[in-house]
Model the fold of this input.
Amino acid sequence: MKSKVERFWIYTVQKFHFVFGYLLRLFFCYDKVDLMDTVRCRRGRIPEDLLKSLPRSLRVNNRYLPGEKIEFYIKGEELRITVLYQFHRILKNMDCQGTSGIEVTIKDNYGFKVNKCIFPKTSTQMYMVDTFKINGGGGYVCIGLPPFALVESILVNKKVFIKKVKEEKESIVVYGSSITHGCASSRPALAYTNILEKMTGGNVLNFGFSESAKGEEEVIRYISSLGAKIMIVEFDHNATIEELRKSHFIVYQTIRSITDCWIIFMSRFTGGLSITEEEEQERIRIITNTYQMAKRLYDDKIALILGNTVFGTNKRDYFVDGVHPNDLGMEVIAEAIYDVIKKRGMLN
Done:
């Protein structure tokens, strides 16, 4: 892990490079479309006025847009993508590809598909350009935003841009901690939320907040109002046992006061690694109690995934640092959720 002095120096250099890149953009963007102008939540996943009284960690992490996608059609034989970053976060368990990678998927008019993650090569590189050859004179493009970087602009030439794709998929809302946020997958596409999106064919809205997610009422009310068909709730990682005991059933009641969507509760995955198995069992009792009380209220649109059943006995093989899943761990989590969604017919 870099020292505070090293990080301060890197962030200072980032600001200098961002200003230089911003000036370049002003001079050379007259013939470009800025795709970031089309992002519905460009300044934060949750409106800032709802977060004023909440902890700084949540307000800071709210500005990142993990899982947010920009879909559009293009014409022509070449697509040139220019990216200007405002900030890269430095994390001890992720490199630049993991924190700042931008996933580009192109399906040309011949049906040929390209998937590529483009990313800065250093923590201070704030300006990035990549070019893609397109067969068939055009096609569909999807750009996925990074989990721990702020993107100022994503520019493409006006002459190749046709229109943005209208979002019409069934949505799934996921609320949780840094694991849901995407830490520490090696690239954004391998976070469990993005894998789940591919499995279901739906639109997964990521409300994972590193260092946060303690059942905040303002957050729960907002995400419950988005009209999702399924809500996945994972906040058994940053909340203390007392916070979890106090808030877990209230979170359920808050969701149900707003929507009758399916709810999937998940418990912590890392008992025996990040906490003792005794503490894990206490947390499971709290979450299971919410589930059982919901069933007693004749709520049939609720499910429970116990984290201690997901990875079996060799948990360490699935985690980077005893807390955050590696790529294999992310895949296993996505499969566990998808299995429940299929068995219960939640997207039927």
About this structure: The first strand starts at residue 32 and ends at 34.
